[in-house]
Amino acid sequence: MQYFLELSCSGLVRGSIYALIALGYTMVYGIIQLINFAHGEVYMIGAFIALIVSGVLTIYGFTGFSILILAALIAAVYAAAYGYTLEKIAYRPLRNAPRLSPLISAIGMSLFLQNYVLLAQTPDFLPFPSLIPDFEFMEPIAHIVGSAELVILVTSAITMIALTVLIKYTRIGKAMRATQQDMTMARLVGVNVDNVISMTFVIGSVLAAIGGVLVGSYIGQINFYIGFMAGVKAFTAAVLGGIGNIPGAALGALVLGLAESYAAGYVSSAYEDVFAFGVLVLILILRPAGLLGKAVKQKV
Amino acid sequence: MRKSVIKKLVMVALLSLVVPVSGFAADTIKIGVAGPHTGDLAPYGIPTKEAVEMIAAQVNAAGGVLGKQLEVMPMDDQCKPEIATNAATKLVSQGVNVVIGHVCSGATKAALGIYKEANLIAISPSATNPPLTQSGEYPNFYRTIAPDDDQGKLAANFVTDKLGAKKIAILHDKGDYGKGFADFAQQFIEAGGKAKVVLFEGVTPGAMDYSAVIQKVRKEGADAVIFGGYHPEASKLVAQMNKKRMKVPFVGPDGIKGDGFLEIAGADAEGVYATGPMDVSTLAANKQAKDDYVAKYGKEPGTFFDQGYAAMQAVLNAIKVSGGTEYAGLEKALKGSFVDTAVGKIKFDSKGDAEGVGFSVFQVKGGKFVELK
């Protein structure tokens, strides 16, 4: 039983990181039907910015949690700027192009950002300071959940609730939902669609950056390539939950994280990816639209 | 018609000149040096050739061995088995007394049969494929480098004997290097019979976290972890093991024994064990060899220089001890008497592997890898 709880906890931690990234994928897809392959790179850049900021802050004598919060804030701002710029230079000019063109542009941006960090920073792994203080828990609990894991779970829960509130109850959220339903109609009733799309990228990037900071301080190392695998997993999660559907992305990510963790724990960690993608295949066979996705009729 | 008769006569005359020359050359001791001297793998072969030539020049200047001058015969095999057989045949037909080489395991294997038939001893500075010695197929083969499975064997022995572990978890990164090390460690632990391998599992390099597999290690009750792979995964594993309050010894291969691991794992690295090549740079013989090389060539020696140098030293010692270049005498000398070489004081075991070379266990103490004696 304790073993099951331990595995569940590590699955949830993984899942919530995937969720933070998957939300960005699914929001962008929901609005402009684009799979933003450069999204994983924004996550990676968020982690790098946080590393640089925390280095600077350490010199100025900050400690522990204050560094974590400041670094996460600054990383979020930077990543938001990257997301905004990305959309402006790589996707907006292709808004009315065939759907394949922005997709290729996205892959190009992904490669560009990876290699940019590779050249500007380093090809090696960098140590990431453990910004989350390591508390002592009581014995069996310490085996199940550590303070870093707790912080990750709580932060992602708060972030996801904030996102839900933003989309349900604010003006920009309403505009986003309108744009998602029908871009032309939204424009007709006076929604500034370009702004809404930019905002979507900004919000997605902020979430990814938060994920990057959390993962960095959880596993203690980053390099220019971490965005790729995280991006693939998050994309899988988004598809699993029904791409374009926001609660779906969160659910899909948790399912994926748990599936990986149980596979590693009960079968073999050599096959955790096999199980993760196996679950995806299974769900796409049984529910082609994803867990919470609605089958959309093709507009003719 | 007439012309061709003259040609033949000329040929005969030339040949008759050649024969006495090679007859005269029998007064020298011929040492073949086979390895890649051209092509893209040349950097692995050239240092050995240079080492042998350097020693030969020094010995000749001092009057030779047993009153005979040394003659070095380099032979290029480009690390290719098909060329290696040609090279070996050529060396045999030129009447070499002993061969230093070959360098690559594949080329060595191809050439060894030819040397065996010709009753020639071959000492490789670098062919690490375990069966070359262990199969017993080539009793004429020796090497001054530790075989590939030596590290796994050392890790296995260290964990069972020094750490006294009874239940061992072996993790690897599924790569050739990491899994190879893990396989050998498992093999030797099971053969030793002192401990059980309770978990043998691959982890996915680059995965976000390893907590699930760490929980599994705990569930199996392992009292030591052997990991095959490189430093990014190793540092992730030790960091997460600490976070999960799992305090069991962690032993890795030379892929984690470096500054990269120390830097990334930081405080979590403390106490971690790693196997790695023995530190020979402090040996007097090694320093002497390197200084001579730098004085002669004006640069630092390349890969396998130490081992090549040691092979030549072992050969010369065997010739001196046995008083000749007869196969049986050399064999007895190589296996019977210690010699001080650039890789330490060595002699060869019954299979032809050098005793006293290879790997030691290191432990991180105060942020540095310290060799455990």
Assembly category: heterodimer
How many structural domains of chain B?
A: 2
Span of the ends, CA to CA of chain A: 53 Å
* Average of per-residue pLDDT values of chain B: 89
Low-confidence stretches of chain B: 18-25
Number of domains of chain A: 1
CATH structural fold name of the largest domain in chain B:
Rossmann fold
Order of helices and strands of chain A: HHHHEHHHHHEHHH
Entry keywords:
heterodimer; A: 300 residues; mainly alpha; two-stranded antiparallel ribbon; B: 373 residues; alpha/beta; Rossmann fold; 2 domains; 7-stranded mixed sheet; 5-stranded parallel sheet; 13 helices
Report on this model:
The complex is a heterodimer of chains A (300) and B (373). In chain A, helix 2 packs parallel to helix 4 and helix 6 packs across helix 7. The longest helix of chain A is centred in the first third of the chain and has 31 residues. Chain A has one domain. Chain A is 76% helix and 1% strand. Chain A contains twelve helices and two strands; from the N terminus they run ααααβαααααβααα. In chain A, strands 1-2 form a two-stranded antiparallel sheet. About 2% of the residues of chain B have low confidence. With 373 residues, chain B is α/β, with parallel strands linked by helices. At the A-B interface, helix 1, strand 1, helix 9, helix 10 and helix 11 of A face helix 8, helix 9 and helix 10 of B.
